[in-house]
Amino acid sequence: MTQTADDALRLVLGNIEHNGGPGPEPGVLPRTWHDIHTEVFAPLQPDLLGMTEMTHAQFRDDASPEEMDAANRRFEATQSLLGMRGFRAPMGEGNNPTGCFVRESTFTIGPNAQRRLAGFATPPTYLVLGIPGTEADIHVGIFHGSFCSPPDRRRETFKLTRLIDKVKADQGPGHQPRTADQLANPPGDAQTKPAWAACWLLGDTNDLPEPDGELLPHPDWASPQITDRVHRTHRAERQNDRSWHSYTDTDEIMLNSGMHDAARWAAHHGQLTALAATAGHARPDQGGPVRIDRPYLDAYTVQAVKEVHVINMKGYSDHDLVVIDLWRRKLVEMLQRRTVEALPDWRERPYLPRVTTPDRRQSVASLARNTARPQAVS
């Protein structure tokens, strides 16, 4: 995953269980938190780190002074250790707020970079960032879908589409259709911002991706091994024929809105490991491994993705890390929209075929060499 500093840009989606857990005593950070930050985050050197469980680093309005101090201490410790600027969304109904840390040497961050999105049980962290070389905004949303309410997940995903609407893939300055000349000569040096923007939505979706193009099959929700019936109700809907169908609302809405899953993009270009499970490894009672932590990028900037990696976090968290590496220069080109076009919708692209492991006989047959030797010429 090594890239040189001038062409690399790294996004990391981290779902660290309860942000490392509570401290052993007031003023002391937990060992798990420390190890994750020093052994994983610091070496990765992310340019943007989205966190979907900022537990113990945010507080409610009625928190005690001690609770506020402890939360601020943990939040500031992450910023200090990683050398990044932090943002955190308000507390919602749950106890796991979202947050985002940004490297100021990579992104331009205006005085009103953080924006508010209302109507979420767990408010997303919404930022508007820039990058040197282009005037276009990057709308970033770090979100955590409801774990227990499929209708809320669907409703809140639709609310996230207001950020996708900022992309305006078919428009140019003044919200007019772009001409061929505007495509070739976008107003990168103009005083006014382009009418278009980028959109990155990274989150714990808490539901499954559409099965087409995936390597990991959906759980067999009728299996007797799935004993957590409440979890099954959260993740799948019972049909009239008594079968079960996985909820895939988040993926469907994102794809219908023109977004692209960066992991699918990487897999489509040969990196099949990008489609590895991100959660459920130790939960056969809940259906086993699933890919619920997913990064969605707009149809322009996803073309700058170089690699996507899933990092095993066993012993540290119940979710794995997703690392998205982009070519910086390609990203700037996509943000300038200089002679580039948006990708077609994902469903219009040929899907990655499912990979099946051949049995021994198939393997031997495919690898067997032709043992017939050419006859000697007399």
What does this structure look like?
The protein is an alpha+beta fold and 378 residues long. Helix content is 24%, strand content 20%. It contains nine helices and 14 strands. The protein has a six-stranded mixed sheet with strand order 3-4-2-1-14-13. Strands 5-6-7-8-12-11 form a six-stranded mixed sheet. Helix 3 runs parallel beside helix 6 (249-256). The radius of gyration is 23 Å and the shape is globular. The model is unreliable at 172-177, 353-357 and 371-378 (pLDDT under 50).
What is the chain-wise order of helices and strands?
A: EHEHEEEEEHHEHEEHEHEEEHH
Which descriptor suits the 3D outline? globular
Sheet with most strands: 6 strands, mixed
> Roughly how much helix do the residues carry, as a percent range?
10-25%
Number of helices: 9
Spell out the key features of this protein:
disordered C terminus; single chain; 20% strand; 378 residues; six-stranded mixed sheet; alpha+beta
How are the elements arranged and paired?
Elements: E1 8-14, H1 31-44, E2 48-51, H2 65-82, E3 85-88, E4 99-102, E5 108-115, E6 125-130, E7 137-144, H3 150-164, H4 180-184, E8 197-204, H5 229-235, E9 236-238, E10 244-246, H6 249-256, E11 260-261, H7 262-268, E12 293-297, E13 305-311, E14 321-327, H8 328-336, H9 360-367
Parallel strand pairs: 1-2, 7-8
Antiparallel strand pairs: 1-14, 2-4, 3-4, 5-6, 6-7, 8-12, 9-10, 11-12, 13-14
